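Customer ticket, subject: "Can you confirm the structure for AraC-type DNA-binding protein?"

Message body: Hello, I'm evaluating your service for our small team and ran a test protein. I'd like someone to confirm that this is what the system normally returns, since I don't have a reference to compare against.
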Amino acid sequence: MDTTTTSSRGLLDTGDPSFRLTRVPVSAGLGAFVERFWMTSWDLPPGRSAAVTLLPHPCVNLVYDSGQLMISGVGRERFTYTYRGRGQVFGIKFRPGGFQPFLGGPVAELTDQVRPLSTLWGSSASVFADELAGAAGQDELISVAERHLRAHWPPPDTEVARVGRIVRALLHDRTVTRVQDVTERFGLSTRTLQRLFQRYVGVSPKWVLKRYRLHEAAARLAEGKGGDWADLGYFDQSHFIRDFTRAVGMTPSAYVAACARNEAPLSA
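Agent reply: Thanks for trying us out. I re-ran your input and got the following:
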């Protein structure tokens, strides 16, 4: 059974081959709430800069960047990160719904927000950041992160598992094309489903479904396979083009042309 609740898609383009992305599975015992660790790194000549654009997943991340340890809520819009010189960013990607037990309140309060981890963990967040700053390499970064996660590990929450089952259906099952398909399959009213996602995920189930399908569309177009909008749950082509253009920033045909110019999405 595929237990993933996010894909490896969503990194739309990178204009420089020096940009590297690594994804690492979590250790046993952490997978109930955490999807994976990730690290980006780059090394550019002096005076040069480049950028990478992301179409975010419905996940909360803890991000260590430039000495700061931040809570990054679900971002609903595409995000461009500009980098220069030599550097790296380390992150912890929680499963959709997986950060709520750490937060204790509605994850929707974090949507489109970036906040210092210290607002949640107090002074221990500074200790966490200091230890990450002193870590020598990826393995040590992950060791530090796992130790601090375990120190703040919340009690079990069966709702996270239920959210995970629903999200897996949205991600993997192509017969799920509407929110009504979800309510019927999982025996939930639309209102209950909406409240569950507002508290645990931070965005609506309709948003999650659309985002996963747009990730898939971008990947297909980048690979030259074309965008079958009907297979992605759209009832008309104009609706698909409108949603894709708004999310990605260019029409599907323009995106194909950009990929052909070696401005292709990076997926790992």
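A couple of notes from the result: The longest helix spans residues 205-222. Strands lie at 11-14, 20-25, 34-43, 49-54, 61-65, 68-72, 79-84, 86-94, 114-116. Feel free to reply with more questions.
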